[in-house]
Amino acid sequence: MAQGLFNSSIGRKFAMALSAFFLLIFLTQHFFINFLSVVSPPAYDQAQQMQATGLFNDVSHFMGTNPLIQFLMQPILIIGVVYHFVMGIILEVQNKKARGPVGYVKTNASRNSTWMSRNMIWTGLVILAFLGLHFYDFWIPEITHKYIEAAPADTGRYYGELVEKFQDPIRVALYVISFVLLMLHLLHGFQSAFQSVGANHRKYNGFIKAFGKVYAIVIPLGFIFIALYHFFLNK
Questions:
Q1: Alpha carbon distance 189, 183 (integer Å)
Q2: Residue 153: DSSP 8-state
Q3: How many angstroms separate the CA atoms of 219 and 225, rounded?
Q4: d(CA 185, CA 169)
Q5: Are 120 and 90 in contact (CB under 8 A)?
Q6: Which of 41, 56, 186, 214 suits a disulfide with 36, CB 3.0-4.6 Å?
Q7: Closest CA to 133 of 166, 171, 163
């Protein structure tokens, strides 16, 4: 019965919504860790004549060396990302087939749906491309450093690596554009995920919609602020 449910369109939307919630949790956690690079960067310890690690470096080191995170949560995260975007493409193809060749022409798409809802697949694909860049910038060097080069543990390197990446104006521009598109993606996707799991009640819809808008705007703007902060502060 469960297999039949997840083979149906409703079941696929339900599963995609669950993957979206999982990715939202990761996104929130990722934001707060990165924001530590602004509020708790490394500081030079005059007494010890050395650079203190700072909370950002400490937390990053913990996340990068904890076996539970590295060998359980990290693979689950990668699977969740791939599943969410593949399922999004599948559902979009199914929706286009269901609408037929005339699609939105007869129903007047601009009046019956938002730009965000009509372009979720494109904003999603750009976000996926951005994730590829993000993996190239941070995840691949991290894996290389730990498992290929087998370099000794260095709790103070994370902040410097972050700042270095944000010195390239082209890279920073790509980050900003990607997070603007993430904002648009979340403005529709946040509430849609709740509807897909059946959380659709007039008593709570107003709060979910309002909270979704705040989250969709604040978190991407927060990431943009982090990138611009390090770009301009460390010029």
A1: 10
A2: P
A3: 10
A4: 24
A5: no
A6: 56
A7: 171
Instruction: Specify the pTM.
Output: 0.83
Residue given tokens 């996104």 in the structure block: 27
Rounded (5°) CA angle 3-122-79: 40
Helix (H) or strand (E) holding 215: helix 202-233
Please state, as a whole number, how many other Cβ atoms lie within 10 Å of the Cβ of residue 71: 9
The Cβ of residue 124 has, within 10 Å, a number of other Cβ atoms equal to 19
- 3-class DSSP assignment, residue 41: coil
Percentage with pLDDT > 70 across the chain: 84
3-state helix, strand, coil in the chain (%, to 5): 80, 0, 15
> Distance (Å, rounded) from C-alpha 15 to C-alpha 196?
9
Q: How many CA atoms lie within 13 A of 53 on its CB side?
A: 14
End-to-end CA distance of the chain: 59
- The answer to whether 220 and 185 are in contact (CB under 8 A) is no
Residue 212 token pair: 């979704």
Q: Are 112 and 144 in contact (CB under 8 A)?
A: no
DSSP letter assigned to residue 147: I
126-144 per-position pLDDT tens digit: 888 888 888 888 888 888 8
Cα distances (angstroms) measured from residue 145 to each of 36, 47, 56? 22, 31, 19
Which of 172, 170, 85 lies closest to 125, judged by CA?
Answer: 85
> Under a CB-based contact definition with an 8 Å cutoff, are residues 121 and 91 in contact?
no
Contact 226, 204 (CB under 8 A): no
pLDDT computed for residue 154 by the predictor: 76
